[in-house]
Amino acid sequence: MGFKMGIVGLPNVGKSTLFNALTKTAAAQAANFPFCTIEPNVGEVAVPDARLDKLATIAASKQVIPTRMTFVDIAGLVKGASKGEGLGNQFLANIREVDAIAHVLRCFEDGDVTHVEGRVDPVADAETIETELMLADIESLEKRLQNIVRKVRGGDKEAVQQERLMKMALVALEDGKPARVVEVDDEDAKAWTMLQLLTSKPVLYVCNVGEAEAADGNAHSAKVAEMAAAQGNSHVVISAQIEEEISQLEDDEAQMFLEEMGLSEAGLDRLIRAGYELLHLETYFTVGPKEARAWTIKTGTSAPKAAGVIHGDFEKGFIRAETIAYDDFVTLGGEQAAKDAGKMRAEGKGYVVKDGDVLHFLFNT
């Protein structure tokens, strides 16, 4: 599995420019006026992973298939979005469908680009969006609590659980805190996720800075870093303008351009890595002469569940996973050499897959 990240923020902060760069398309119109994005744009990008290319070279794989990540460019929210201001209701619904939120914040000064509030203050912008999402969650919860009263009185176990969780969320929200601060037990985790609360989504703050500040950030991005740390959220510093320029270049040219700008890697790589950490994701590989392929799983996934990412039958009929650690595969020069050196392990149903594992599943049909 990959994951779906919604790109949100106030109008004119660089969301669509970043989306265009990340997906290497011009599907999202980037223009200097609010609401230029009327429908959410969806784009898939390959997740860059140098390990996959190395494995493919060693195994002489004919095809290299990276795992993929989905970005959803959601139009600019404004103050009052929770009450339908701007195009609020439509976009709040779109946010419910994503796994995480990349909150783009304007951390650049540019008199030619209008700010809807007439000033550059990324922390205040973040608070504006968070407040709107919290208000939308409160309204949603209050309505749902009214709708399940009868089921709760009738002793419906599922409704009783939902009511308890919704009330926990409301306590936090009415105290000015997002739903993600609520600690939920394992037995409640699935029901909690089903509530689809906007503020339960993990947040990655994307500080959009000017080209000259892409390497080290600036005073604005430093304030965002401080805010993110206090909240337990993550942040990355990116120049959407640079990313858009890089997206138009060939790989060699792009690398030279990055070096000239004092950057060791593209913003896309940092953004995806931060997103993986945010959602506790990791990668395992399947490698052979036909193809080398990357697969995304949650950290802590068992071998049968990891097999199920490829096909449900793999999980149902799971027998064992022939496992080689990435470092062993590369150091020894491939599957057979690792096997000869005793580095291939037969792991059963209880094995927890590790990031970088090279796996071959055996299963009953």
Any overview of this molecule?
The protein is α/β, with parallel strands linked by helices and 365 residues long. The chain has 15 helices and 12 strands. The protein has helices at 15-23, 50-59, 88-96, 122-147, 149-153, 157-174, 189-194, 219-231, 240-247, 251-260, 267-279, 303-310, 312-316, 326-332, 335-340, and strands at residues 4-8, 41-46, 63-65, 68-73, 100-106, 203-208, 234-238, 281-287, 291-298, 318-324, 345-347, 358-363. The strands form 3 sheets. Strands 2-4-1-5-6-7 form a 6-stranded mixed β-sheet, sandwiched between helices. A 3-stranded mixed β-sheet has the order 3-9-8, with helices on both faces. Helix 1 (15-23) runs parallel beside helix 9. The relative contact order is 0.14.
Which descriptors apply to this entry?
single chain; 365 residues; alpha/beta; 3-stranded mixed sheet; 19% strand; flat
Which SSEs are present, and which pair or pack?
Layout: E1 4-8, H1 15-23, E2 41-46, H2 50-59, E3 63-65, E4 68-73, H3 88-96, E5 100-106, H4 122-147, H5 149-153, H6 157-174, H7 189-194, E6 203-208, H8 219-231, E7 234-238, H9 240-247, H10 251-260, H11 267-279, E8 281-287, E9 291-298, H12 303-310, H13 312-316, E10 318-324, H14 326-332, H15 335-340, E11 345-347, E12 358-363
Parallel strand pairs: 1-4, 1-5, 3-9, 5-6, 6-7
Antiparallel strand pairs: 2-4, 8-9, 10-11, 10-12
